[in-house]
């Protein structure tokens, strides 16, 4: 008899360990020996500043790993100080430290029948990781096998009670979780509302007031510094008396952001002044009940309840409150909704406690003070040459991965003891997948189609069914989870619900029928084995954003998401990058019956236009296969909702995904998404309306469209009593060309940074003086802001130059600038320098401002002007004499190169091709535009995420 992991003894007749099958690896050959390894140099640059932010040369990866994947693993997951001998330099090292730790723990805790089974487990896991079939979540790569605490979980749920001790403990626990690079969520509904009394006789502060302190803490810690920013979820029940205040918190702050932006402050995400607003570090969700949603449908009132007694202290119009929720989401994308009764109807541990909250990305939903470690499979790896899904191979991979995930709980460390105890007692796991969008496209299935949804549903069902079957098998060997006995009936009931949902699926093709057949067999075993053995894990599956690890696996799409766009930005070995068309598109076209010549023509059209509309030879009934998250044929909001609804019944947890709506969507559209999500059985829904946040800049394409619309409006006949001129501010692009000039005037040293618009005109200046006191520093900052705002509202630079040159005050005298040898003041020098840098010769001539080269030319020729000169000194270039016909041949080649050079990610590339904005923040690490991934954002350049998984 072997001792079980949880301290009990296996029942009579139980096996003493797993007998592992060798499926992926080859007997007698180590997985590393089956691939070709190569050395690479990883150099990461901030595209915005040009600064090298990371460099490690000679790292080792398999030759089939992309440059992007190797860059992200090197920068994010290699441990040890850069430049030291202790620094990891090979993918083999990080896989070994993780896999060998898992194998050792499996042996110590009695998971394997014999040493040979442990060796097979090690080789199978290594093979799957090397070949990018799956990946563990980021904390595993950060921590496992290192001297750091062995934290393996990315997702945490905390709890807070109605006491000051509990509230302050919440702040502390959240801080430790952020410091470790993870995220946390909690429900604040136990805290008394601002409409209730304290025992001392005063009025309670209410949960919203305590959110301010937690938000400030999260913004300060920024979740581990270099790994990711703080991620958190705050939930409030819809029957809490402070629900309206909670709903409007972020919407009010968005109004404040707009006012500060219009006053000239930098309120873009990551901007210098955005920290002055509150509640920006959390996602907010309202936990709604079926009772409330039925009241919305019926148009009746709804009771808000006191936290201590449960009595109704106020009644509100349900539709009016629902409209306020949708309006706030329309204004700022928060709050999302979590459907409480649906969540708890699928809860395997109701005897222990209700599920009240989720992690920041909303995919993990379980008991308070618990955690979940995640792993995701790369679905495209299981697509066979005949374009069918290899269900059996997929199931075998799930077996190995879910076993490893459960083993990790045996040795894992946790940020708090309550979280550790709950996790060890309930052993929640979160297996999921990525690349669904790419898989469906390669199979010739539309994302928003019955065929696409059926395939996704059957794959999800097979994944969770296999996981729980293996969980029941593990329970026979090392025992069920500690909380199983008191929840056995409820857990088995939920397994039957999953089985019934699987039986309700109706396959549409041979391909999904094969997957469904295997899933049906798995669920039959789950139910039968569970009756005898119980289950090792309270939860098994979620669908996470898979941001960073998605790039590690070279996935085209993240989580459950559709393809982001049909064109991609690809880094090249040895440096540089290029625009490519998704490699799944030719495969999809071949699957749909197109011949090679047609495929080449369609791909060329997509490369130029970024979409398939009017592509030569492409039939309209096939357009839906190539629908994407953005672009000419972007998916409709309900297309996202229906896909989530197809997969939700086969997940233990929920789905991290945001439903994107166009900018012109109405509040009623958002209400409909929220209402239909409830009716279709989703556990949570988040929405995002394009350009609803100030931090998301409009693209030039949209600005031009608005100008055209305005022109049409002006052309229409109208009666105008009074015309008032309203100046329009032309904001600088997020990434702009700038120059920094150091100078000395009369012994006073300083620096001037000037930024320009895309057309080269000056748009901002910043002045810093050496050894300056706080008063002078403030004056110079204020002066810089005033001039910058004036420039952006259209005040000509020539006007500033004429007003500020020749001003006399100290310091004054000699400068170190050959173009401006003497200056009568700092202002005199600054605006003479700006004139030389940004004004054309004709304007400078009228002001009497010349460069040193122009003055020398006057001494030699009697004229300041160079024959043929038409612009500023900065614009002058030497031009070789070229025949006109040669010029016309080379210009079309040069222009696309210049365009591609300006884009650094697929998001930026799509903005250039389509002229529409991608509503994503800029990466804090490398400065490129991130792209949506579930409820979060991920950077294609460096792998940084705004989320927690």
Outline: globular
Number of strands: 23
**Major sheet:** 10 strands, mixed
**What is the rounded distance between the termini?**
38 Å
Which stretches are low in confidence, meaning pLDDT under 50 for 5 or more residues running? Answer: 1-14, 223-228, 696-725, 867-901
Number of helices: 29
> Can you give the mean pLDDT?
84
Helix content: 40-55%
- C-alpha Rg (nearest Å): 31 Å
Task: Tell me the β content.
Answer: 5-15%
Helix/strand-derived category reads alpha/beta
InterPro entries: RdRp_reductase_class-2, RNR_2_N, RNR_lg_C, RNR_NrdJ/NrdZ, TSCPD_dom
Function: Catalyzes the reduction of ribonucleotides to deoxyribonucleotides. May function to provide a pool of deoxyribonucleotide precursors for DNA repair during oxygen limitation and/or for immediate growth after restoration of oxygen.
Keywords: Cobalamin, Cobalt, Disulfide bond, DNA synthesis, Nucleotide-binding, Oxidoreductase
Protein name: Vitamin B12-dependent ribonucleotide reductase
Short description:
This protein is of the alpha/beta class and 949 residues long.
What does this structure look like?
The chain is an alpha/beta fold. Among the domains are: 31-152 and 357-550, no CATH class; 159-345, Anaerobic Ribonucleotide-triphosphate Reductase Large Chain (Alpha-Beta Barrel); 738-875, no CATH class. Helix content is 42%, strand content 14%. A hairpin with a 6-residue loop joins strand 8 (301-305) and strand 9 (312-317). Helix 7 runs parallel beside helix 9 (318-332), helix 11 (391-411) packs across helix 14 (450-478) and helix 14 runs parallel beside helix 20. The two termini are 38 Å apart.
């Amino acid at each position: 008899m072997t001792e079980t992991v949880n301290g009990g003894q296996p029942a009579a007749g139980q096996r003493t360990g797993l007998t592992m099958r060798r499926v992926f690896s080859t007997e007698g050959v180590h997985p590393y020996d089956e691939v070709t390894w190569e050395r690479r140099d990883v150099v990461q640059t901030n595209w915005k500043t040009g600064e090298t932010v990371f460099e490690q040369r000679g790292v080792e990866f398999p030759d089939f790993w992309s440059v992007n994947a190797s860059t992200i693993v090197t920068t994010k997951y290699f441990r040890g100080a850069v430049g030291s001998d202790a620094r990891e330099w090979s993918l083999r090292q990080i896989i070994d430290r993780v896999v060998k730790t898992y194998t050792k723990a499996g042996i110590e805790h009695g998971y394997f029948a014999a040493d040979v089974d442990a060796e097979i487990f090690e080789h199978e896991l290594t093979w799957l990781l090397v070949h990018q079939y799956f990946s563990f979540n980021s904390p595993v790569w950060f921590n496992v096998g290192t001297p750091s605490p062995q934290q393996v979980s990315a997702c945490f749920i905390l709890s807070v009670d109605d006491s000051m001790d509990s509230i302050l403990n919440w702040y502390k626990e959240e801080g430790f979780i952020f410091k470790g690079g993870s995220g946390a969520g909690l429900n604040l509904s136990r805290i008394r509302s601002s409409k209730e009394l304290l025992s001392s006789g005063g009025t309670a502060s209410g949960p919203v007031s305590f959110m301010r302190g937690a938000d400030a803490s999260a913004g300060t810690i920024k979740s581990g510094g270099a790994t990711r920013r703080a991620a958190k979820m705050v939930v409030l029940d819809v029957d809490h008396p402070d629900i309206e205040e909670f709903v409007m918190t972020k919407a009010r702050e968005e109004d404040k952001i707009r006012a500060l932006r219009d006053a000239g402050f930098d309120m873009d995400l990551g901007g210098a002044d955005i920290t002055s607003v509150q509640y920006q570090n959390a996602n907010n969700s309202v936990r709604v009940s079926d009772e409330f949603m039925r009241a919305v449908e019926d148009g009746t009132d709804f009771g808000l309840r006191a936290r201590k007694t449960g009595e109704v202290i106020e009644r509100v119009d349900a539709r009016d409150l629902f409209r306020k929720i949708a309006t706030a989401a329309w204004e700022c994308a928060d709050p999302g909704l979590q459907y409480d009764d649906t969540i708890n109807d699928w809860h395997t541990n109701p005897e222990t406690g209700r599920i009240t909250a989720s992690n920041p990305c909303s995919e993990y939903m379980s008991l308070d003070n618990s955690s979940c470690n995640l792993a995701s499979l790369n679905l495209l790896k299981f697509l066979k040459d005949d374009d069918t899904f290899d269900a059996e191979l997929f199931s075998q991979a799930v077996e190995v991965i879910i076993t490893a995930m459960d083993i990790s709980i045996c040795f894992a460390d946790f940020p708090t003891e309550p979280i550790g105890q709950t996790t060890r007692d309930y052993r929640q796991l979160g297996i999921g997948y990525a690349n669904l969008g790419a898989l469906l496209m390669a199979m010739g299935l539309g994302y928003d189609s019955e065929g696409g949804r059926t395939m996704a549903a059957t794959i999800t069902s097979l994944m969770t069914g296999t996981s729980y079957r293996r969980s029941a098998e593990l329970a026979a060997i090392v025992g069920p989870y500690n909380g199983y006995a008191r929840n056995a009936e409820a857990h088995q009931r939920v397994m039957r619900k999953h089985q019934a949902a699987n039986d309700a699926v109706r396959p549409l093709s041979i391909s999904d029928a094969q997957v469904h057949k295997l899933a049906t067999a798995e669920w039959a075993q789950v139910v039968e084995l569970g009756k005898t053995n119980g289950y090792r894990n309270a939860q098994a599956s979620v669908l996470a954003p898979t941001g960073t690890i998605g790039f590690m696996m070279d996935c085209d799409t993240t989580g459950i998401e559709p393809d982001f766009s049909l064109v991609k930005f690809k880094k090249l070995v040895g440096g540089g990058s290029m625009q490519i068309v998704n490699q799944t598109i030719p495969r999809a076209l071949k699957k749909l019956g197109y011949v090679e010549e047609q495929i080449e023509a369609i791909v060329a059209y997509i490369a130029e236009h970024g979409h398939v509309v009017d592509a030569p030879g492409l039939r309209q009934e096939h357009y839906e296969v190539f629908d994407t998250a953005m672009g000419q044929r972007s998916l409709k909001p309900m297309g996202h909702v229906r896909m989530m609804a197809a997969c939700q019944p086969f997940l233990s947890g929920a789905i991290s995904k945001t439903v994107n709506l166009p900018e012109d969507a109405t509040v009623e559209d958002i209400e409909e998404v929220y209402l239909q999500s409830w009716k279709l059985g989703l556990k949570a829904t988040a929405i995002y309306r394009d350009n609803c946040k100030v931090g998301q800049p409009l693209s030039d394409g949209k600005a031009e469209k608005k100008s055209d619309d305005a022109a049409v409006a002006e052309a229409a006949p109208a009666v105008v009593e009074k015309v008032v001129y309203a100046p329009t501010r032309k904001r600088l692009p997020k990434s702009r060309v700038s120059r920094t000039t150091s100078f000395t005037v009369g012994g006073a040293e300083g620096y001037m940074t000037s930024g320009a618009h895309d057309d080269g005109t000056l748009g901002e200046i910043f002045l810093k003086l050496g050894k300056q006191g706080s008063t002078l520093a403030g004056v110079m900052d204020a002066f810089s802001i005033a001039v910058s705002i004036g420039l952006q509202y259209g005040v000509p630079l020539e006007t500033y130059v004429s007003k500020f040159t020749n001003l006399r005050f100290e310091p004054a005298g000699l400068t170190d600038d050959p173009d401006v040898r003497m200056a009568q003041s700092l202002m005199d020098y600054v605006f003479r320098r700006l004139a030389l840098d940004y004004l054309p010769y004709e304007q400078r001539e009228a002001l009497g401002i010349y460069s040193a080269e122009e003055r020398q030319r006057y001494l030699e020729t009697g004229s300041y002007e160079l024959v043929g000169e038409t612009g500023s000194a900065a614009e002058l270039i030497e031009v070789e004499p070229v025949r006109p016909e040669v010029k016309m041949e080379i210009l079309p080649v040069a222009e696309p190169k210049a365009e591609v050079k300006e884009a650094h990610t697929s998001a930026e590339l799509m903005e250039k091709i389509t002229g529409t904005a991608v509503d994503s923040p800029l990466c804090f690490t490398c400065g490129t535009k991130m792209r949506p991934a579930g409820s979060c954002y991920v950077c294609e350049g460096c792998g940084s995420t705004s989320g927690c998984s």
